[in-house]
Hints:
The chain is an alpha/beta fold. It has a single domain (2-169), classed as Phosphoglycerate mutase-like (Rossmann fold, 3-Layer(aba) Sandwich), CATH 3.40.50. It has helices spanning 30-35, 50-59, 87-95, 108-125, 137-147, 152-155, and strands at residues 2-7, 43-46, 64-65, 131-135, 165-169. The protein is globular, with a radius of gyration of 16 Å. 29% of the residues are buried.
Amino acid sequence: MQIFLIRHPRPQIEPGVCYGRLDVDCEDPLPVAARLRLPPQTTIVSSPLRRARRLAEALDPQVRIDARLAEIDFGDWEGRRWDDIDRAAIDDWAADVLNFTPPGGESVADLQRRVIDFAGEIKATFSGTSAALITHAGVIRALLGHWRALPLAEWTQLECDFGSSTEIEL
């Protein structure tokens, strides 16, 4: 089964602002959709967040939405400039990337659990077809880390450009 992990187009948000679950719009998704080469009958599944959903709808108006494909929730940090977030809290996060939870948010371990839960259903849900997951860098990294059995230090650092597509065979 072919899986295409596609990151949403560049979000329309000022650089230096923390956003994960923050529902911000994106640049025009049509140029990204036009350059993607997906097999016919590919099932499109999207994060519910607008920046992913707009690209998904440009690919297929009958897109499936799955909340487990949403980006990590940074809680009280959402929408704040990174420079305005308490330095000690960011240091605590850096010291335990997997388990630290921003106030009111979720940890990378929480993100990983929900993404792996989704991954466990892919073959049963989309058996014999290809699927394109329109989602976010954190989700893509967690999926690739799971499927490639990468250690945390590797999968959390994987490059994932806006509008990029990574193909994996399951």
